[in-house]
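Design job #97: recover the sequence.
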């Protein structure tokens, strides 16, 4: 990754480079969290598929 020299580089180019880096960081964070959410969803779907109506009552709570 190249760093722009703030003394010799026009301000708009510096802003564009910073925006590009911010977008890359945001995308990486999103993809990471999406993977975690997909794992949780898969676990919930597996639990829901194995559940039966007879097992899922609130009678044991009283």
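Job complete. Output follows.
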């Amino acid at each position: 990754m190249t760093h722009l020299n703030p003394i010799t580089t026009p301000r708009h180019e510096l802003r564009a480079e910073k925006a590009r880096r911010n977008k890359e960081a945001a995308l990486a964070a999103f993809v990471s969290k999406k993977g975690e959410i997909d794992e949780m969803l898969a676990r919930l779907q597996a639990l829901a598929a194995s559940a039966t109506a007879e097992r899922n009552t609130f009678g044991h709570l009283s």
